[in-house]
């Protein structure tokens, strides 16, 4: 499923003294099956943009196409688009409200009018996809750990079988282990189910490790849209936007400045670590 945003501007409280342009003539396309990071300093427009992807907000001007259908032209009900483009808000566990985990995950598919057998299958599949098991079905969401709650909330969106999954800061407030576990689950989801994943974050460190493409937002505009490696080359500009680059990228640049042979083939953070190990092992003798 592809999403296209065409010359989109969004103004909050338009024509009032409080009006605020949150998106300024944004054009971009998310292709089917991509794993994309959406990065930007606080207030850069990320949350506003992702709410355009599934029609939760209507553009002040410009268009949104999902699979080439203009979603505001009423050819397709927005409800259907929202099931296909699943949005996991920041701290989604705040929206858990049923008595049991099973009922919470079943909420979305039940609202879709599916039969009981299909709902049961989807709930069980979704819970297992996020790395939890049947022991959790009858637990109250309120007795779970932070990481478990987050997984249950993601399962609730997955049970609607979206083609695109958008997550707004999915690791916020989790400890490093919880953070890595959630990100690893997302990579699995993307690889095994072929779901398009859009990961919203402040952290280049988190996102750079996992995604194939990074879109950097700044003051309501798309500043960069490229592979992590190419985006990380703009160290100074990213710093001036209040964003850093992964530590390993600084190290690579310093090694290059000091005359070490650094391969131009390095594209991922893992490759950068391997390259540094390679350089160090050649140059340091005990
Ligand atoms: N409901 C609203 N009413 C008025 N202005 C808003 C509203 N929501 C957001 N804004 C403003 O729009 C701009 C973009 O906000 P947005 O929440 O999209 O940014 P963000 O990059 O997601 O920030 P964060 O990382 O803090 O979530 C900001 O200047 C913000 O103050």
From TrEMBL:
Forms a stable energy-coupling factor (ECF) transporter complex composed of 2 membrane-embedded substrate-binding proteins (S component), 2 ATP-binding proteins (A component) and 2 transmembrane proteins (T component). ATP-binding (A) component of a common energy-coupling factor (ECF) ABC-transporter complex. It comes from the Bacteria. The gene is ecfA2. Its EC number is 7.-.-.-. PROSITE patterns: ABC_TRANSPORTER_1 (PS00211), ABC_TRANSPORTER_2 (PS50893). Residues 3-244 form the ABC transporter domain. It holds the Pfam family ABC_tran. SUPFAM superfamilies: P-loop containing nucleoside triphosphate hydrolases. One of its GO terms (molecular function) is ATP hydrolysis activity. This is Energy-coupling factor transporter ATP-binding protein EcfA2. Its main location: membrane. Belongs to the ABC transporter superfamily. Energy-coupling factor EcfA family. One of its GO terms (cellular component) is ATP-binding cassette (ABC) transporter complex. Keywords: ATP-binding, Cell membrane, Membrane, Nucleotide-binding, Translocase, Transport. It is a peripheral membrane protein. It is found in: Cell membrane.
